[in-house]
Model the fold of this input.
Amino acid sequence: MVTELNESNFDSFVESNHIAIIDCWAPWCGPCRRMGPIIEEVANDLAGQAGVAKLNTDENQAIAIRFNINAIPTLLVFKDRVLVDKLVGLRPKDDIISYVSGL
Amino acid sequence: METDVLIIGSGPAGIQAAIHASRKKASVAVAGRTSASAASGTEMDNYFGTGPVSGDELLSRGVSQAESTGARFLGENVITAGRRGDAFEFTLEGGESVTSKAVVIATGISRRKLGIPGEKELFGKGVSYCAVCDCNFYRGRRAVIVGNDSEAAVSAEMMTGFASETSWVVWDLQASDVLFDKAVAAGVRILRSKPKAIVGESAVEALELEDGTVVPTDGVFIELGARSAADIAMDLDVMPEMDDTIKVDSGCATGVPGVFACGDVTGRPWQVAKAVGQGCVAGMNAAAYARGER
Done:
């Protein structure tokens, strides 16, 4: 199950997960719609290893500005509460799993 | 306009689909520009029965042949696609609506990248390939749209609703007069030169053009060609593959009833022989679907 984040639960999600992967998306973005099912699978495969969540950038623009997001889909990657990477663009599940395994 | 079958793309796959759908007594319309086909401007010597032949000659003969069967070539790109009940609905560049009972996606593979310095390095840092996705991040900032065809024109007009300044870099205008005029009326600044390099350290700062102009900007939106097959497919509820190709079965069906695909857009090999083979199958099956035979 992928958690939907907003202004009220974003920080607590990052703080409560050793590794947090946050898929930044918007409804009108075609590549984001393709990323959706991939992120669902990533969440299942990484259950217990990483917290996986989604952030609608249209409804949460302050967070998008805070992390200087200029393009979507973007995966925000946090390790021990620190932003370690921003992965921009559509990418396959195996690439994401492999990336997280290397953290 | 209403038609039994709308074919999106007028390269070898689309033309062959038009011939076979028309011969099955379906009314057929074909969107797209033949000059945008990957076969245009090529020389072929591996196509059955022709010997060495130019792609443009083959395309021209194919269009005449398809027109003689009753197919109508619209000469315009599709800019929106969607479903309406069991039917499909499209908008063309000139604003005309087309409704069809079946659709064949034969767009080919679109080139998305410019291949200029700074493009790869600044992707996600101001360089974008999807203005619709990312326009919201450019509210009150400067944006440049790059491209010659309908998708660039549509993107430029849309961006004026977000950016403080919108420029459109165009060097070989292919978009329709209607779309060009809409962009100009919306306040888009037109710059007629080829892009040379995207400049910036940690984010986009400017776009350099071949005529020496330097355009200060926060974002460069690269929108080459017509609306992509992947976008059109998603509008019709077909999920594209990761490489933007569309998966089809042996009948060129996509899995969504009434939506067929053929040619390069279904994946390799990118050969005219394969494209027309699939075009034949897709055209016949789309016509049969539209006529309620399957």
Remarks:
- Chain A touches chain B through 22 residues (CB under 8 Å).
- The mean pLDDT of chain A is 95.
- The beta strands of chain A are 3-5, 19-25, 51-56, 74-79, 82-88.
